[in-house]
Amino acid sequence: MADVGEVLMSVLSTIRVPKPGDRVHKDECALSFSSPESEGGLYVCMNSFLGFGSQYVDRHHARTGQRAYFHITRTRKAKKEDDNNSGSGHPPKKKPTRLAIGIEGGFDVEQEQYEEDVKVVILPDRQEITSDDLATMPDVVKERVSLSMAGIMTADSVSHTLQVQQWDGEVRQESRHAADLKQLDNGVKIPPSGWRCDVCDLQENIWMNLTDGKVLCGRRYFDGSGGNNHALLHFQQTGYPLAVKLGTITPDGADVYSYDEDDMVLDSKLPEHLSHFGINMMTMEKTERTMTELEIAVNQRVGEWEVIQESGTTLRPMFGPGLTGMKNLGNSCYLNSVMQVLFTVPDFQSKYVSNIDKIIDEAPSDPTQDFKTQVAKLGYGLLSGEYSKPAPDPGDENGASEPRGDQIGIAPRMFKALVGRGHTEFSTNRQQDAQEFLLHFINMVERNCRSGSNPSEAFRFLVEEKIVCQQSQKAKYTQRVDYIVQLPVLMDQATNTEELHEAERRREEGDSSAPTVRAQIPFTACMAALSEPEILTDFWSSAVQAKTTATKTTRFASFPDHLVIQIKKFTFGLDWVPKKLDVSIDVPDTLDLSALRATGQQPGEELLPEVAPPPLMTPDVEVKGILGFHGNEEDDSLYSPLLSPVLDDSTVSQLCEMGFPLEACRKAVYYTGNTGIDAAMNWIMSHMDDPDFSAPLVLPGCSSGPGTTPTESLSEEHLATIVSMGFSRDQATKALRATSNVLDRAVDWIFSHLDDLESMDVSEGGRSAAESEGGRDPPPGPRVRDGQGKYELFAFVSHMGTSTMCGHYVCHIKKDQQWVIFNDQKVCASEKPPKDLGYLYFYRRVAD
User: Fold this and answer.
1) 230 assigned to a ligand binding site
2) Where is the UBP-type domain (predicted)?
C-alpha cells in the first residue's frame, strides 16, 4: 500500500475548501437517510461536498473517481441525571408556557448531545488520516487539507438552513393604533375583579375596549366554547380597535388584541390606557389564561385532537417494512401523512422503490436536486424497514427498557426542499392543506413522467358534465380530468339537530357547562348532493339565444384504480371568515359507485349548438366590433381583440379584498352581468374548484384573455426558466401569453394544462408541428384507466385544528387487515380508527 502522505499529495488537486454559497451536505446522505449517527457514519466528498452513507460511498467513488472524503461519525453522549428527576429515572418534562419551539418556555424539542469524530478517508483502500497525522505532512498538504476540513466543519449544512430551529408564536408587533389611541372621557371605571359581559353576563373570556371601557365577551372558538362574539360585534358597530383581556393584566403586560389588524399586538402605552379607566397595572395579578396558554392547550389536546390521535388509549408500537415514521420538520405533518399513504399504492412502489438501483445508477451528478432520485429515496426509506427501529431512550444507556412509540424514522429534508422549491407556500415552514399538497405532488409526478410509466394514473379519472337546457331540452356534454372527488357537507342534513340546537341555546345563554355536540351527517346525504342535478338559473342557451334555466349533472366517465375523496369541511361563514365544520360522517368501508357511471349522449338526444354567448352589455356603453352584435359568424372582421369588457370596479375590488385572485373576480363580475356582489360571490363559490378558476378572462370569440402579451415582449428570462423545467419554448410561450407574462402564474397554468401541452409537438423549425404542417387531427384524450366502480377503504388522512393553515395531520392506513396510525415518528396499531372524522379518504378498487 502506498504511503498515505503520497496518496494525499496525489489527490490534493481534487480537494476544495468550501466557499460562501457552496451547499455542504454533512447531515444526510444524498441517496439514503444515513447520517453521521448511522452505523458507518457519513462520508462527505471533499470536492462536491455531497454526503454519502457507507453503502453508497464506494459507488460514488467508482462513478466519479473522487477519492478524498471527509468522514464524520457521531455517538450519543450519556445524559447526566437531573437533580429533580422522577422515580422512574426520567427528568420531568416542563409544561410549556410559551407558544414557541426550541426556546426557553416553549414546546420541548429534545436536543441530543453527541461526541463527534472526524477524519479524512482515501478510497478505494479506506486509508485514514486524522488531524494528528496531518501535522507530520508537508506544509502544502497540511494547509490545504486542514482548511477543507475546517471549512466543512464550520459550514452550515443544507439541512440546517432548511430546518426551523426556533419558532416563536408570541412575537407581536406594535399596534398602529397604540400611539394615538382615542379614549373617551365617559367616567367609566373598571373594578379589579368580578367582571361580566355587559350583554350576556358571561364571566369568562372577558375583554375591555380601550376606547370606551366597554366590558364584553370574546370570540366563540371552533368547538363552541369561548365567548359569544360581543366584543367583536362592538368593534364592528363602533370601529374602536383595541381591547385588553381582563384577568391577563400583570406588571409585565397583558393580552391586547387589535380587531382592525386582526391580530394580537403590543401596546407601548398600555399602563396609560389602563389608568384612564382606573386600572393600576402594577398591582394587577393574572387570573385568566392568556391567549397563548389557550393556544398551547389547543395544540396539546382538544376534542378531536384526542380522538383522532387516539390519545386516550395505550397504543402498541409497530416496527418493520412499511411501518417507518417520519420526523416533523416544523409543520410538515401534511407532507408526512400524504406520502405515507401514496407509498402504499402499488404504482408508486413499482415506479420508484422496485427500480431504486437503476434510478440511483442513472442519477445526475447532484442527486439532491433530482426529483426521481429523491422520491425513490423517500419511498425506499418508508418501505424497507431499515429506519423502522425504536428511538433510543435518552435515559436508558443500556437499551433495556421497553420500546417507545417514537422511531428513529426518517427526516425528509431533501425531499421537502425539492418539491417545495419555487412554490410560495410549500417552500415555507407554515402548515399547509394536505389536499393541495397531494395535487401539487401529483402535478410534479405528471411533469417528471412525461415518458415512461406514470403512477399518478392510479388516481386519474374522467368526469362527464351534462348540461340540459330546460327550454329546448337540448344537451351539452363536456369531459375533464380530475384526481379527487370533493364531497360537500350538508349541515342541514344532520341527524342530531335537536342536540345541536339545545347545545347552541345553552351557549347563547352563557352556560359554560354546555357540552360540545358534533353534527352527525350521513355519508349518503353527501353522495346524493354530488349526484343530484344542479339547477343553473342564469344559463345562456345557444339553442334559444338567451338566458334560461338548465340542469347540470356530474357523472364518472371512468373509474380510477384508486379513488380519493375529500370532505369539504373548510368553508366560509356568513361574514366570509374561513371556518372548519366540526362534523362526524359515517364514511363506509366499502363503496359502490356503479350507479354514477356516465352514459354519454343518448339516442335521439339533440346537442346544443356550439355558439358563444354574446358579450357583456351595459346600459350606458355601446359595444361595437364584437362578433354576435355587429358582426356575424361568417365575418368576424369587426372583432377587436383589444376591446376590454366594462366591469364594475367596486365589485371587483370587494372580491379581491376577500382574498380571491384578480382574474377570478373579473370573471365573476363579467359572467354575472355586473349585477352586484352577491351574484358575483355565488359565481365564485360555485366555480372555485374549476381548473381555470384563476386563469385570465377570455372573451367570447377571442383566443386569449385581455392583456395577452405578444411574443416579442415576452420575458426571455421567464421563457428560459420554464424551458429549464423540461418544457418546450412553444409551451413556455403559450403559458406566458395566457397569464400576461407573469412567471408564477405561468408555472401554475402550465401544470394545470399538461394534457393540452402534451399535444404541442415541436418541429425542428421551432414552431409547433400543427403550425408547420397546417393542422392535424386533434390529439387523443388523456390516458385513464377504467374498471368497475366498487371500492374498499384502505387509508384516510385526518386534520385537527380550526383551519388548514394550522393544527396537525395524522393518517391511518390498513396494513394486512390491521389499521395503523402514522403520527409523524409514532407508528402504532390503531385501536379505534376515527373513520368518521377524516379529511381525505383513499379507496382502492376491489375485484368481483
Assistant:
1) yes
2) 173-281
